[in-house]
Amino acid sequence: MYELFFQQFNEKVPLTAEEQETIKTFLTPKKLRKKQYLLQEGDICKYIAFVEKGALKSYVIDEAGTERITQFALEGWTISDLYSFLTGEPATYLIDAIEDAELVLISKAAHEELLQQVPKYETYIRLQITGAYIALQRRLTSIISLPIEERYKNLTTLYPTIVQRVPQHMIASYMGLTPETLSRVRGRVTGRK
């Protein structure tokens, strides 16, 4: 456990063996079964989760009871309700496993301690949050300015693994479409009639 976590960490911010061992003492492994919750709406988000294996989704349930997916997380990605994690306020998102998953969890207390003890951890977190903000800004711009077909092409180009592993109805939810509309969009993009 922790191999992919440290591989990704070291790609962004190289660690000494001592720093890696220090960080390891603050990490908690967790396994989730498919459809098992990591976080439910209204709970306080206590962890940042790094996906070693599997796939998760973050979502809200709208007034009509429809699931609206806001994020996917596959191997090498992190997922959390960052607002709840940082403020201690109740979570607005639900997070559960699309596939059986193996996670590396960092608790709020561990996060705060690592920020103090390991300066490279702070650098790594800053890079992670910056990357997440850029992805969010890119997605928002896409939603408000691009036709649906272009949004789908961008998704398949930027995240081909998501399209291969995640059920189409979930991709439709992520894109704000019905599964039927997504099917028509996919047909137009691939040239099917």
From TrEMBL:
InterPro entries: cNMP-bd_dom (IPR000595), cNMP-bd_dom_sf (IPR018490), RmlC-like_jellyroll (IPR014710). PROSITE patterns: CNMP_BINDING_3. Pfam families: cNMP_binding (PF00027). Residues 15-115 form the Cyclic nucleotide-binding domain. It comes from the Bacteria. This is Crp/Fnr family transcriptional regulator. The lineage of its organism: Bacteria, Pseudomonadati, Bacteroidota, Chitinophagia, Chitinophagales.
